[in-house]
Design brief:
This protein has 324 residues and is of the alpha/beta class. It has a domain of 198 residues: Rossmann fold, CATH 3.40.50. Helix content is 38%, strand content 17%. The radius of gyration is 19 Å and the shape is globular. It binds nicotinamide-adenine-dinucleotide.
């Protein structure tokens, strides 16, 4: 297939690009490099530098494509609450404009990067696809809105789609081919790595009195290589005419903040400064996904997502960038 990957220079996108090139597909990466890295795009992929909201750029990137993998978005939940218009512009307006352009170009299949943020506070664990959707931040709302639009486009016969709800993406390509680091990360593992490298003073742990084994928050960390595999399986599923679907992508278990810090200390061989501070508003104590539907529908089984491997591959990426 010829596949356009919007946001393919970013953290997850660069891993998806590698996986789909390995699968023998023709790849066009479209990215404005706002948070992505030019060096993350392999020479075997075509690169269109520009914004998804620019109709000429969109037409160029989508010409002749059978499928679209759409990762381009802003992703900081906290920022989406203080600057919602920024998120409306990119995650809603630009995304809808690009889907429109994809339809004009005859693209039939779309794989969309959704998020666990569509669910909001967990009412039960593990979180399966039928769990109530009640986003607690504007970012999660934008993802849910695009899921709903895609459901309508499917119903109206315009295009079929796979919405992949990632839980906490983490880790780097075990073969060391993708090393583009996230800029100004807000998520735990890169923050812990930046402390280990001396780029930050300490890890702030938001709350130690949760109802979890060690009192710190528990999250589901899924290796980005496993996520990339899910994109390949999703495209095969759509291409085979098996229809649109929405799945959660997580491991089915969680790790605590303190476990992540302690394991990182073992991996990097030095202490990682950390300090307990107060809870953050809106942070649930525990969050993990059921991966059962993805397994049944796609045969997707995470193979790289044990915490040790996630941390080792991440540390290697930091070292490959001359850090650590
Ligand atoms: N990282 C996670 O844990 C996580 C979890 C759930 C969902 N997601 C979603 O997955 C997707 C990818 O996330 P990521 O972690 O790789 O983030 P990222 O910031 O590394 O990647 C996003 C890419 O999209 C590009 N981009 C953004 N807006 C653009 C625009 N208007 N035009 C062209 N290019 C644009 C950026 O330059 C970047 O390369 C996002 O949609 C994000 O919301 C990520």
């Amino acid at each position: 297939m010829r596949i356009c990957i919007a946001g393919g220079a970013g953290y997850i996108g660069s891993h998806v690009v590698r996986r789909l090139l390995d699968g023998g597909h023709d790849i066009v990466v479209l990215d404005n490099l706002a948070t992505g890295h030019r060096e993350s795009i392999p020479s075997q992929a075509e690169f269109v530098h520009g914004d998804v909201g620019d109709p000429l750029v969109a037409r160029k990137a989508l010409a002749g494509c059978d499928a679209l993998v759409y990762l381009a978005a802003w992703k900081a939940a906290g920022e989406s609450m203080t600057d919602p218009f920024k998120y409306s512009r990119n995650n809603l307006v630009n995304t809808l404009a690009f889907l429109d352009a994809a339809h004009d170009q005859g693209v039939k299949h779309v794989v969309f990067s959704s998020s666990a943020a569509v669910f909001g506070a967990p009412k039960s664990l593990p979180i399966d696809e039928d769990h109530p959707k009640d986003p607690e931040n504007y970012y999660g709302f934008t993802k849910l809105e695009i899921e709903r639009v895609l459901a309508w486009y499917d119903k109206l016969g315009a295009m079929d789609s796979a919405c992949l709800r990632y839980f906490n993406a983490a880790g780097y390509d075990p073969e060391g081919r993708c090393i583009g680091l996230e800029r100004n990360p807000a998520n735990l593992i890169p923050v812990v790595m930046e402390v280990a490298c001396g780029m930050r003073k300490e890890v702030q742990i938001f709350g130690s009195d949760y109802d979890t084994p060690d009192g710190t928050g528990v999250r589901d960390y899924i290796h980005v290589t496993d996520l990339a595999e899910a994109h390949a399986l999703a495209l095969d599923h759509l291409h085979a005419g098996k229809g649109s679907f929405v799945v959660n992508l997580g491991t089915g278990e969680g790790q605590s903040v303190l476990e992540v810090v302690k394991q990182t200390e073992l991996v990097v061989g030095r202490p990682v400064a950390h300090r307990i501070v107060g809870r953050r508003a809106g942070d649930p104590s525990s969050l993990w996904a059921s991966g059962a539907k993805a397994r049944e529908l796609l045969g997707w089984v995470p193979k790289h997502s044990d915490l040790r491997k996630i941390l080792e591959t991440t540390w290697k990426a930091y070292q490959a960038n001359g850090l650590g």
